[in-house]
Amino acid sequence: MAAQAGPASAGRPRCFEPAGELRLPLDAMLRVMERHSYADAPVADILAEAGLSTRSFYRHFLSKDQLMCEQAVVSVRSFCWRALGVIPRV
Protein backbone atom coordinates (compact mmCIF):
# COMPACT_ATOMS: atom_id res chain seq x y z
CA MET A 1 0.00 0.00 0.00
CA ALA A 2 1.41 3.43 -0.99
CA ALA A 3 1.91 6.11 1.62
CA GLN A 4 -0.56 8.97 1.51
CA ALA A 5 0.80 12.41 0.77
CA GLY A 6 0.19 15.17 3.32
CA PRO A 7 -2.60 17.68 2.77
CA ALA A 8 -2.08 20.25 0.05
CA SER A 9 -1.38 23.76 1.23
CA ALA A 10 -4.40 26.03 1.23
CA GLY A 11 -4.79 28.83 -1.29
CA ARG A 12 -2.91 29.73 -4.42
CA PRO A 13 0.86 29.52 -4.53
CA ARG A 14 2.65 32.82 -4.05
CA CYS A 15 3.69 34.58 -7.22
CA PHE A 16 6.56 36.50 -5.64
CA GLU A 17 9.39 35.84 -3.23
CA PRO A 18 8.75 37.53 0.15
CA ALA A 19 11.38 40.25 -0.41
CA GLY A 20 9.99 41.01 -3.88
CA GLU A 21 6.45 41.00 -2.58
CA LEU A 22 7.50 43.50 0.08
CA ARG A 23 9.08 45.81 -2.51
CA LEU A 24 6.03 45.89 -4.81
CA PRO A 25 3.69 47.94 -2.56
CA LEU A 26 6.55 50.30 -1.63
CA ASP A 27 7.19 51.11 -5.29
CA ALA A 28 3.47 51.21 -6.10
CA MET A 29 2.78 53.64 -3.26
CA LEU A 30 5.25 56.12 -4.76
CA ARG A 31 3.61 55.85 -8.19
CA VAL A 32 0.10 56.29 -6.73
CA MET A 33 1.25 59.25 -4.64
CA GLU A 34 2.53 60.95 -7.79
CA ARG A 35 -1.13 61.10 -8.85
CA HIS A 36 -2.77 61.60 -5.42
CA SER A 37 -1.77 62.96 -2.05
CA TYR A 38 -1.01 60.49 0.74
CA ALA A 39 -4.44 61.04 2.27
CA ASP A 40 -6.16 60.50 -1.09
CA ALA A 41 -4.21 57.33 -1.99
CA PRO A 42 -6.38 54.36 -0.98
CA VAL A 43 -4.71 51.03 -0.19
CA ALA A 44 -6.87 49.51 -2.95
CA ASP A 45 -5.21 51.80 -5.54
CA ILE A 46 -1.75 50.90 -4.23
CA LEU A 47 -2.57 47.20 -4.44
CA ALA A 48 -3.98 47.52 -7.95
CA GLU A 49 -0.82 49.35 -9.03
CA ALA A 50 1.34 46.64 -7.42
CA GLY A 51 -0.77 43.74 -8.69
CA LEU A 52 -1.09 42.36 -5.15
CA SER A 53 -3.99 41.09 -3.10
CA THR A 54 -5.22 42.54 0.17
CA ARG A 55 -3.89 39.43 1.90
CA SER A 56 -0.41 40.06 0.50
CA PHE A 57 -0.49 43.65 1.75
CA TYR A 58 -1.59 42.76 5.26
CA ARG A 59 0.96 39.95 5.42
CA HIS A 60 3.63 42.67 5.53
CA PHE A 61 1.90 45.85 6.79
CA LEU A 62 -0.75 46.66 9.38
CA SER A 63 -1.84 49.84 7.62
CA LYS A 64 -1.07 52.41 4.95
CA ASP A 65 0.70 54.40 7.65
CA GLN A 66 3.06 51.53 8.33
CA LEU A 67 3.71 51.20 4.58
CA MET A 68 4.59 54.91 4.48
CA CYS A 69 6.95 54.55 7.45
CA GLU A 70 8.68 51.61 5.78
CA GLN A 71 9.06 53.65 2.58
CA ALA A 72 10.65 56.44 4.62
CA VAL A 73 13.13 53.97 6.17
CA VAL A 74 13.99 52.54 2.74
CA SER A 75 14.49 56.03 1.30
CA VAL A 76 16.73 57.22 4.14
CA ARG A 77 18.76 54.00 4.04
CA SER A 78 19.23 54.37 0.28
CA PHE A 79 20.29 58.02 0.70
CA CYS A 80 22.86 57.07 3.35
CA TRP A 81 24.29 54.26 1.21
CA ARG A 82 24.72 56.66 -1.71
CA ALA A 83 26.19 59.39 0.49
CA LEU A 84 28.72 56.95 1.96
CA GLY A 85 29.46 55.32 -1.40
CA VAL A 86 28.39 51.96 -0.04
CA ILE A 87 26.98 49.23 -2.26
CA PRO A 88 24.36 47.40 -0.15
CA ARG A 89 24.33 43.62 0.00
CA VAL A 90 21.03 42.27 -1.19
Q: Please work out how many helical segments DSSP would assign.
A: 4
CATH topology description: Arc Repressor Mutant, subunit A
Mean pLDDT: 81
Strand content: under 5%
What best-fitting shape do the alpha-carbon axes yield? globular
User: Helicity, in percent?
Assistant: 55-70%
Quick gist of this model?
With 90 residues, the protein is an all-alpha fold. It is built from four helices and no strands.
Topology readout:
Blueprint: H1 18-35, H2 43-50, H3 54-60, H4 64-84
Helix pairs in contact: 1-2, 1-4
Polypeptide structure, described:
- With 90 residues, the chain is mainly α.
- The protein has one domain (18-84): Arc Repressor Mutant, subunit A, CATH 1.10.10.
- It has 4 helices and no strands.
- The protein has helices at 18-35, 43-50, 54-60, 64-84.
- Helix 1 packs across helix 2 (43-50) and helix 1 packs across helix 4 (64-84).
- The longest helix has 21 residues, at 64-84.
- It is globular, with a radius of gyration of 17 Å.
Which descriptors apply to this entry?
Arc Repressor Mutant, subunit A; single chain; disordered N terminus; mainly alpha
